[in-house]
Design brief:
9 helices, 48 strands
Length: about 950
């Protein structure tokens, strides 16, 4: 019997199962197929990394991240990506999303500094660079010191950065300019966010390191806006253009948002040994307080997000108020070690006062399609006040206001009677300095691999002099005017850049980074005259010959007025070739044309070879140049100079002046250089890094300021001396391409960092520079080479010593920092090596300067007037206490042992003390002369 139950056909039961199976199979198959995976790679600070190798472990297919740290690769879900870059720990991740973000960790703390300067290609960790670069985090080194300005801070933390605070040096008292590797301040190019910074309108004259040069005022913008400073210690004219002979400083501005950073502090010098307050009752010197040079500062920084695509604006504001200092020898008894004769030339020797206000912004806004708009800039205003040389009635009554009968007009508010019975006054030179800057630009990372950047940078500096507490002595019978507008100078610079680059092939595997671009720059320099009373000679019928012009700093006259322009155009090409991960080769060429002297070309090549995973060789060879600045070409002034032991009226003639042509000085041209560098970086152990770099910089045709040529010298061309007499000046000097030099040296940096636990860290940093400056040749114009004396006058022995003293023969610093829980302790020991300078000598000409020995009352025994500043150590200490999560208190002292330089005198001839350019017990040497400095600061982050 057949079963009547209905049976479902098998295929109907299997059909949905098969459908489900095939659907699952298709889904798995689709998931297993390769798809486009995109991502970004950054370090632990959020800095995106270019050139990171992104490799599939299964197929070995690889790509490299672009300029914005982005990559794209075809891969399957679940596969493993391996990301590697020199200086960072290799990282592996399993793909679980089509868009990923990866953070790489530096192999040691020191390698977290990814540098941008010196390369048109990828940012790279500093120890992997083919040339030496220091990376200085201002928030780390600036907060734990009494130094509240950028220039003096760098002097203690960068091995070959040199800075000398000036006194009695006219405008140099009012501006702080640093140098690299013993060269001039205008032989270092300064960038902000990679864009050229304008220089100051000031040109250095008396007492100034880098005399005859004009550089960038590193204190001319808001310090709280700075994130870090990259110091490229290598010639880079082929990459960046003029001024980059000694190197490049790139100041990188802050980008942080969402947090207030506020710092307020106070510091003061407590020098019981040489503060003039101890002589107050003797009435020989100007005095201040027991703690002088009191400096108060306030800074605030805050960033704000713009949109949701990474846009931001970061704002900074700074205020600084710094008081005067007053220093002299500890005793007027010359038999004592710290004793010198009473200083009648500089009764107000010390640092001038300064009030500064500055603001800065830094902004970036993504516009879509890979295009970014950026802008940064700011303003800074400084008022300063410094004492000039003293005027003493007994020595120079022609410098004082007098009645028609020649008797003194005593002004109690300005003059005083000294303890020795003389009448004196101390003219004050005041300045108002304004800096304005603005940079705007657009950049894009193209999908085709071409990156471009178009920018315009505007900069302006106004340097305005005023005479205060002084007189125009030729205005017989009048003391109504004691404040004078002395005029000043301005400098404007506008730079437009277009830069393009593309990576061809794979980074570290035969790839070549090609970069090229162009630059167009407009420069303007002008001198504006002072009010007539600041420079004129008032005629009189009394037969009196009183000195004309404002005493201290005579104003600029109509003869000094100038308004000069020039145009600069240039183009460059740059290649970076990486045949393998171990080898990097670079090359660059640049051509620039100057409307006032013609064309120049330079080139550079460098390499880095990774001999082992922890050891790199590196080196470079380049030619360089520096165009003479408009300040050097067109500055002129008639001012009070020091010659033959006397204050005289001296004319500094510009390059176009008739005096200059009569002296046979040719038109200024570019300085040139040949730079070589060779060194290595080594990581022998975890947390420990060494870099050693030797260098040689051979320079030709350096611009210097000549010696003083006298109107009474019959051996000079008659046309020249006649012109000087017609102008009513005693001496003249000139700017000239006159000197060839060779700077050689070695930079050493050793860094050890140890993380003991999550709450305990230790760090030691050692930086050193050992160098030598040689003068190879001096070019003397025929018209001034009339005899051996004039040949030596052109660039005399004193000037040669002065140039060689641009940096000490050795300088090194060791800092120790220890942190546990909420307390950090630190110390820095800095050694400033030997420096030798000279005085003017008994003849006042600086040629083989010699002066009478104290022991011989006849004055017939002469000894060399060489000032040997022996090497000295200074020690700084601090304690940083995290009082609350948002608040920290820092207390400490710089130069805690109150160390001072040796006196500017031959100990055998102390009666000739003060025969130097400052007129004080010391010259402006690097370690300074103010002694122990106490400080405290409060920082707030919220």
């Amino acid at each position: 019997m057949v079963n009547s139950l209905k049976i479902t056909p098998m295929y109907k039961l299997v059909k949905p199962v098969l459908a489900s199976f095939f659907l699952t199979l298709l889904t798995v198959s689709a998931m297993a197929q390769a798809q486009k995976i995109t991502g970004t790679v950054a370090d632990n600070k959020g800095t995106r990394l270019e050139g990171v190798t992104v490799k599939l472990t299964s197929s070995k297919a690889a790509v490299a991240t672009n300029k914005n740290g982005e990559f794209s690769i075809n891969a399957k879900m679940g596969e493993t990506l391996e990301l590697s870059s020199v200086g960072f720990e290799t990282k592996k991740i399993i793909i679980s999303s089509s868009n990923i973000t990866v953070e790489l960790t530096a192999t040691i703390a020191d390698l977290q500094d990814v540098i941008l300067v010196g390369s048109r290609g990828a940012g790279r960790v500093k120890t992997e660079s083919p040339v030496p670069v220091d990376v200085i985090k201002l928030s780390d080194v600036g907060i734990n010191t009494a130094r509240m300005d950028l220039t003096s801070t760098l002097n203690y933390v960068a091995p070959s950065f040199n800075y000398n605070k000036q006194s009695g040096s006219d405008g140099a008292d009012h501006i702080d300019i640093g140098t690299l590797r013993g060269l001039g301040p205008d032989q270092t190019l300064v960038l902000i966010n990679g864009k050229r910074r304008h220089s100051t309108a000031f040109v250095g004259l008396f007492g100034t390191r880098g005399r005859a040069g004009s550089g960038v005022d590193l204190n001319g913008f808001s310090q709280s806006s700075v994130d870090r400073i990259e110091i490229l210690r290598d010639g880079a004219s082929a990459q960046y253009g003029s001024d980059a002979i000694a190197g490049v400083m790139n100041i990188v501005l802050r980008k942080n948002t969402g947090e207030w950073n506020i710092t307020t502090g106070i510091a003061g010098y407590y020098d019981k040994k040489f503060n003039t307050l101890q002589f107050k009752d003797q009435k020989e010197y100007l005095t201040g307080n027991a703690i002088d040079g009191v400096t108060k500062s306030f800074s605030a920084n805050r960033g704000f997000d713009i949109g949701k695509q990474g846009g931001f604006i970061n704002l900074s504001f700074d205020v600084l108020d710094q008081g005067k200092t007053f220093r002299q020898a500890a005793s007027s008894d010359i038999t004592m070690k710290d004793g010198l004769p009473t200083n009648t030339w500089r009764r107000g020797f010390g640092d001038g006062s300064l009030q500064s206000v500055g603001a800065m912004f830094n902004m970036e806004v993504p516009l879509g399609d890979g295009i970014k708009f950026y802008a940064f800039g700011g303003m800074n205003s400084k008022n300063s006040d410094a004492y000039a040389y003293s005027r003493n009635w007994s020595a120079k009554p022609t410098r004082f206001p007098v009645k028609p009968n020649g008797s003194l007009i005593y002004v109690p508010s300005i003059m005083f009677v000294t303890g020795s019975g003389d009448t004196t006054y101390n003219p004050r030179i005041q300045t108002k300095i304004q800096d304005i800057s603005m940079v705007t630009g657009f950049s894009k990372t193209s999908t085709t691999g071409w990156d471009w950047d178009f920018s315009n940078a505007f900069g302006y500096n106004n340097f305005h002099y005023f005479g205060h507490g002084t007189f125009n002595a030729s205005n017989i019978g009048s003391v109504e005017q004691t404040h004078f507008d002395d005029g000043g100078f301005k400098f404007l610079q506008n730079t437009t850049n277009l830069d393009l680059s593309k990576q061809f092939g794979k980074v570290n595997d035969g790839g070549v980074k090609v970069s090229f671009g162009s630059e167009f720059r407009i420069e303007n320099y002008s001198i504006f005259r002072g009010e007539p009373a600041s420079y004129k000679l008032f005629t009189n019928t009394y037969g009196l010959e009183q000195a004309p012009g404002s005493q201290g700093f005579p104003g600029f006259s109509p003869a000094d007025k100038v308004n000069a322009n020039r145009l600069v155009s240039g183009a460059y090409g740059d290649l970076e070739y990486t045949p393998s991960e171990r080898l990097l080769l670079t090359g660059a060429v640049r051509l620039e044309y100057y409307s006032d002297f013609g064309a120049v070309s330079t080139f550079k090549t460098s390499f880095r070879y990774k001999a082992a995973d922890n050891f790199n060789f590196r080196g470079s060879f380049s030619t360089g140049y520096r165009a003479p600045s408009l300040q050097q070409k067109y500055f002129s002034n008639t001012l009070t100079s020091f010659s033959g032991g006397e204050l005289v009226q001296s004319r500094i003639a510009n390059n176009d002046d008739a005096l200059t042509k009569l002296a046979g000085i040719p038109a200024l041209k570019q300085e040139t250089s040949i730079n070589t560098s060779l060194g290595f970086s080594w990581k022998p152990a975890k947390g420990l890094t060494f870099t050693v770099d030797g260098y040689s910089i051979k320079m030709k045709d350096r611009v210097v300021l000549s010696g003083l040529f006298s109107a009474s010298d019959a051996s000079l061309p008659a046309e020249l001396t006649s012109k000087l007499n017609t102008l009513g000046v005693s001496t003249a000097q000139f700017f000239a391409n006159a000197v060839n030099t060779t700077n050689t040296g070695i930079d050493v940096v050793a860094d050890y960092q140890k993380k003991i636990s999550n709450t305990e860290r230790f760090k030691i940093l050692f930086v050193a520079n050992f160098q030598n400056i040689a003068i190879d040749e001096v070019h003397i114009p025929d018209a001034l080479n009339t005899n051996e004396y004039n040949a030596n006058t052109f660039f005399n022995d004193r000037e040669k010593y002065f140039l060689k003293a641009s940096a000490p023969k050795s300088k090194f610093s060791t800092s120790f920092d220890y942190t546990k829980n909420k307390i950090s302790l630190g110390a820095r020991v800095t050694y400033f090596g030997d420096v030798a300078l000279t005085g003017f000598g008994v003849n006042g000409d600086g040629i083989n300067p010699q002066v009478p020995a104290d022991a011989d009352e006849t004055g017939n025994t002469l000894v060399p007037e060489i000032f040997n500043y022996k090497g000295k150590f200074t020690t700084d200490i601090y304690m940083n206490i995290q009082v609350r999560k948002t608040t920290a208190l820092i207390i400490g002292a710089d130069n805690i042992f109150n160390v001072h330089p040796d006196f500017a005198v031959n100990p055998q001839a102390k009666w000739w003390a003060g025969d130097n350019e400052t007129g004080g017990p010391w010259d402006g040497v690097q370690m300074g002369y103010n002694g122990l400095r106490l400080f405290t600061k409060l920082t707030f982050k919220f």
